[in-house]
Design brief:
252 residues, SIR2/SIRT2 'Small Domain', six-stranded parallel sheet, three-stranded antiparallel sheet, elongated, binds 2'-O-acetyl adenosine-5-diphosphoribose
Amino acid sequence: MGSAAPSDALRSLLRGKDPILVLTGAGVSAESGLATFRGPGGLWEGREPTELATPEAFEADPDTVWRFYAWRRTQAAAAKPNPGHVALAALERGRGNVLLATQNVDGLHERAGSVRVLRLHGSLWRLRCTAEGTEHDDMNPDLSPLPPRCRCGALLRPGVVWFGEALPAATLSEAAAAARRAALVIVAGTSSLVYPAASLPVAAREAGAYVVEINPEPTPLSPLVHERLRGTAGEILPRIAEAAGIEPERPA
Ligand code: OAD
């Protein structure tokens, strides 16, 4: 059983100076109105991830894959950071020594003000040329006509990590090093089903970190954590920031 109040052990780590690693997933953006992937109403309900989020799917049908990502860009552009995103940005700014590794591609952490962000699964806003491999950011949600093309004429693809693809090596190794160094790991809003992201808190625990999970539902990680805070990210993360001695802030 978990509770919703941070323990004394957690409070003391939050008030200390030792490194904190935060790992987030789609649940952190749920209160911004963005659907998670799994479960009722999730993006993968009634959709086949292999038909939308694999290099093979893109090669076979770039139009369909791009329609899915263009729609997600529109949703993300219309969404606003919620109190969970805002609390994490405040924790980084107010406490320091906080690194955020996110599986989210929506950019809401950055829009809330988080600076030290490792994007494990890339970004919805990044476009990559399928011929040259060059990347650029394009924040305009309207990419019509779809599929977008590079100036060189080749197709552009979303700069996200698809199933079957490796995570960006430097980003993953930075996250793994942070997991080994961290005194505290806060895992929020992820089903902990997708690897290698899901292995980070386990590695951190093995290296001696105190691991806390914030999620209204149990996950495969739950039995392995020191503390479960049952509740939503928008509800619990502001309490975490408060426990670190940081004044609550209002969403931008
Ligand atoms: P999932 O959809 O798998 O899991 C979302 C988690 O958030 C679940 O455990 C929910 O219980 C929890 N949740 C829901 N609402 C919440 C809230 N308000 N506050 C806190 N938690 C909440 O999403 P991810 O774990 O992010 O990858 O999925 C991991 C990866 O799988 C994604 O990055 C994506 C997906 O397929 C790719 O596309 C490669």
